[in-house]
Amino acid sequence: MIKLGVIGTGRIGKVHIEGIAQLQNASVKTAADPFMNEQTAEWAKSMGVEHTTGDYREILADPEIDGVLICSSTDTHSPISLEAIKAGKHVFCEKPIDHDVKKIKEVIQALKGTKIRYQVGFNRRFDHNFEALQKAVAAGRIGKPEIIKITSRDPEPPSIDYVKVSGGMFLDMTIHDFDMVRFLAGCDAEEIYVQSANLVDPKIGEAGDVDTAVITLKMENGAIAVIDNSRRAAYGYDQRAEVFGSLGMAAVSNDSDSSLVISGGEGVTGEKPQFFFLERYMEAYKKEIRAFVEAIENDRETPLDVYDGLKPVLMGLAADRSRREHRPVRIEEISKEEGIG
Amino acid sequence: MIKLGVIGTGRIGKVHIEGIAQLQNASVKTAADPFMNEQTAEWAKSMGVEHTTGDYREILADPEIDGVLICSSTDTHSPISLEAIKAGKHVFCEKPIDHDVKKIKEVIQALKGTKIRYQVGFNRRFDHNFEALQKAVAAGRIGKPEIIKITSRDPEPPSIDYVKVSGGMFLDMTIHDFDMVRFLAGCDAEEIYVQSANLVDPKIGEAGDVDTAVITLKMENGAIAVIDNSRRAAYGYDQRAEVFGSLGMAAVSNDSDSSLVISGGEGVTGEKPQFFFLERYMEAYKKEIRAFVEAIENDRETPLDVYDGLKPVLMGLAADRSRREHRPVRIEEISKEEGIG
Amino acid sequence: MIKLGVIGTGRIGKVHIEGIAQLQNASVKTAADPFMNEQTAEWAKSMGVEHTTGDYREILADPEIDGVLICSSTDTHSPISLEAIKAGKHVFCEKPIDHDVKKIKEVIQALKGTKIRYQVGFNRRFDHNFEALQKAVAAGRIGKPEIIKITSRDPEPPSIDYVKVSGGMFLDMTIHDFDMVRFLAGCDAEEIYVQSANLVDPKIGEAGDVDTAVITLKMENGAIAVIDNSRRAAYGYDQRAEVFGSLGMAAVSNDSDSSLVISGGEGVTGEKPQFFFLERYMEAYKKEIRAFVEAIENDRETPLDVYDGLKPVLMGLAADRSRREHRPVRIEEISKEEGIG
Amino acid sequence: MIKLGVIGTGRIGKVHIEGIAQLQNASVKTAADPFMNEQTAEWAKSMGVEHTTGDYREILADPEIDGVLICSSTDTHSPISLEAIKAGKHVFCEKPIDHDVKKIKEVIQALKGTKIRYQVGFNRRFDHNFEALQKAVAAGRIGKPEIIKITSRDPEPPSIDYVKVSGGMFLDMTIHDFDMVRFLAGCDAEEIYVQSANLVDPKIGEAGDVDTAVITLKMENGAIAVIDNSRRAAYGYDQRAEVFGSLGMAAVSNDSDSSLVISGGEGVTGEKPQFFFLERYMEAYKKEIRAFVEAIENDRETPLDVYDGLKPVLMGLAADRSRREHRPVRIEEISKEEGIG
């Protein structure tokens, strides 16, 4: 029985607590949140959480706890990672580890020589659709990948306040797609070119960000990838991907609430894609934690280690530079500046 | 070069004239219609028809003409068939040959000992979807057929005047599905049970007919078939079929004008099925005539001979009796009474 | 907090225990099974079950327990229902209550004058697809229902031993579809006609049963319904439905594990329908228990009461008679004989 | 009755002759080809062509002929255009007018002050799918366009001999997509960035060309467009497009020969996209000629004038430069150099 601590009981922390409640080989001993209140504490108890607290250091100090889930605000991911590693806890860290590569390097450094299992929370790899797609590609069903296409559009833009602290669309939203393109291609990107615009809400532009983008990537295996992003899709959360190769094409499309189709005078109408990311990816969130628990239990590598957390950040920085300088940017250019390998 | 005469230049006669215009191995020498007028004559000329007339006997008397298409009103199908056979012409006869089995028997009798090629106009067998379905079944791709389902719904009911002379829904509309079920099963029906209702328009009921039906058939190969009919589908002309067998299922669905799909706040909407049977089956009409011409050219059997014209009429009569007597009716019961087989 | 007892910890009992573990307003106090063993007991404990036993009477005798789930073998459903009602427990009873209408009548009798909430386990009503379909129909989106079609095909036939005690396909398998047709039509059936066959496995025929059927129903609202069943679909568990009405058509199709589609030299291939009914309907099983708990909690009617358990049995008996006597059978004929209504 | 001359009776010339045979308001008086032979002449006759010749100048000299179709080899498009304009004939010219902008400018110059109708053969605009998509976008059904995606993949690469004289993939193949993106966006492109590769056949690379590309475009209306190309799709001719906008998304997908879907042990398999471009776009070829004839008949603008022929060539040149210099290239950069605008 793996004992876990959950740091941060906001939206995503709650999702993970619910997921762990369904596992037979793991339980949450302690959930911590600086804003812990009675309501959350009671809910946590009903989910089998033994103990709640306002101070995550209780978790780190508890010798019974094997691993921690860092679900607190983005700016705390890397410092708490460092503390948790120091305390000898296995770490599941929500994405991104940090927007600052130096801080990720500190985490990498801290992990060296330890037996700590570190997993970063790119949940989409555990989604039934993307998992099936990756498996089909890895199994060679479409031959050698040549063109990879990812469509990733949010149903609605975040608040302008959030936009301002988000690190920009590429590090906040596209970062998931950067991970996905690595997952599907089975290799890293070499170069990125961004064509982006501010079309959804002028306030996003005023905040210095973009909301619409088409991002072209050259992958190390020779494939060309393209990601298209929008911060607002009127029909819901649009999450599709397609891999084209020498023997054919594999593609996955959106999930909807039901298969209901109505044929009437206006046409033949099916349901919209699911709107809310938590609904869309609920099963994926459960599966990523199951994978983390299994990595601890069996003392084996997590499916998404700290380098899988680093690479999409480098890609995000390259994308940002491409946008600003309006030219293709090699990932190497960023890694060298950041003093990476 | 096969020379043809077209008898009847209404809607369907025109379709066939257009189809023949695209053939390289056939042409229409004469088109006849009691209501032939200048406009039609001119149109016919532009379609390469050499000659037009008010009297179809000119066609029968013309030694240059190899075959005739009988596209006149239903009540004339069998008498003109007899005349044409007597005149030594190959015959393409629109469905049904007759509602009266005795008259079909006369046609069968007249054909005996001749070298005349006779084809009946069940156009749907030549439709790209139904043809692909039949081929898949005949090739054994779904194993032994066990359940055959046909959905056949008209976009809107015919006029009440037409309903009154139509012979009833089973002989007028379902007759196509009776042919289709024979085509897909590759054998004849043994027994029919009808559950029908008058739900679309009370005037249809007042005229003694039904407009909605589910018809169950036991086929000679052991498969069970079911046809569902409606005289009015709000979303267009609904023409689907599915064959389920020991190794799987093969199904075909509707054609629409384009593959356009719009995703919006209301859902994900594709186009309706095509509305009009002439539009839906235009290519099938062309292909059936091509097959007729090829049968003449190569002196071989037509794909749909006079017995293929007879059987669906027997099925329609059985269906009608099942409806009136509210019990399953064996086809044999009808054939014996009609002195067949 | 509603306290429940689960009687029978076979496949379906376990599913319900898992479902209840995710509820915040209910828990399983005791799980009983004559074959209770250590392994099951341990599993139950991990699922939050407080106590396990070999004797279900412990549950009935426990004043703390509000309601019971009867998940034991079919022959025990009605006797344990009677005991549970006598003990004042709310009852969730797996389908069917009994194959013998007299015994169902005893349950109805026993419920009279009590405040006991009784729910029968027709899980499919809680499936996301069928629920969406029923809602669309009930909301009038397709107008007045005219033709209802249900396709229900199992992936593989049960063992011959099971077939022999199953009560026949209509009471064992089609019973779900009889419930579904009532759910979708929003009314009862008046008459049933069966065309059935033994095509899948001759041993099923030798056991006196059929494995393939097309069942036509006349509904009280005038609609015609048709169910097609097979005990073996090579491509998985086939669960579809379509309701056609005056304004259009609503249809639901199968669920698959993912939306993966592979385009290659052989065609464009998507995933098969999910194979296993527990996988396919897992969420529905959870939702039906949630509904049962809510009925207890709020002292309101269950969504599927004892009469909803009775009606499909009457339909099954009518279907069986139609099959044996090869004629349409009115439900009234059966109910009168059984002294109902 | 519009009288036409067809110059070049290769594959595409034949398609147009067949199309014209079905028109009531036009006919082919003369078909010319330097390699005219008996077989072609006979075939032409059967298609209603009055006269065949080896010398296209006969067509230009014939005062009865209203317009010509230039279906000869690419290098002759612009010189014959000039001759035809000089001869006062309306011109339908297959794409591209020329790879050399100077020569297109000569055609533009020659047209000035004349009443000649000039149409360039970008057939895809007349395809039922793309036409429906464009209409939906133009009608505002998806709001303001923001992201336009075109997938255009050939089933198999052309011969290396053809590759060498093709002008490169961008001018030979992508040129259709450049036209399509203008059609869908309703405006011109401002800037192009190419990421391309030689993945399909090394011989294509040796010939100095690429066979795989992702091309990003900034459109004048602010939308971002992306085209992905491959010279070889194992599953057929892949021709799709999607326009995403402020109110939703409109998309069109491939046509297949039938709607047949087979569900079996391996999955649920539909037909591949049609393989051959002539089959896929047959109706579009007919419709573009119908539009040309109507433009002549009604003395109105053709739907695709000489500038619509010029712009995609400029885009192709920009794409080529982007590929060679590995940077985004503004269309303006090319036009200025070519002395346009």
From TrEMBL, chains A, B, C, D:
It holds the Pfam family GFO_IDH_MocA. Residues 2-122 form the Gfo/Idh/MocA-like oxidoreductase N-terminal domain. Its EC number is 1.1.1.18. It comes from the Bacteria. InterPro entries: Gfo/Idh/MocA-like_OxRdtase_N, GFO_IDH_MocA-like_dom, Myo_inos_IolG, NAD(P)-bd_dom_sf. This is Inositol 2-dehydrogenase. One of its GO terms (molecular function) is nucleotide binding. Transmembrane segments: none annotated. Keywords: Oxidoreductase. Belongs to the Gfo/Idh/MocA family. The lineage of its organism: Bacteria, Bacillati, Bacillota, Clostridia, Lachnospirales. Signal peptide: none annotated. Residues 130-250 form the GFO/IDH/MocA-like oxidoreductase domain.
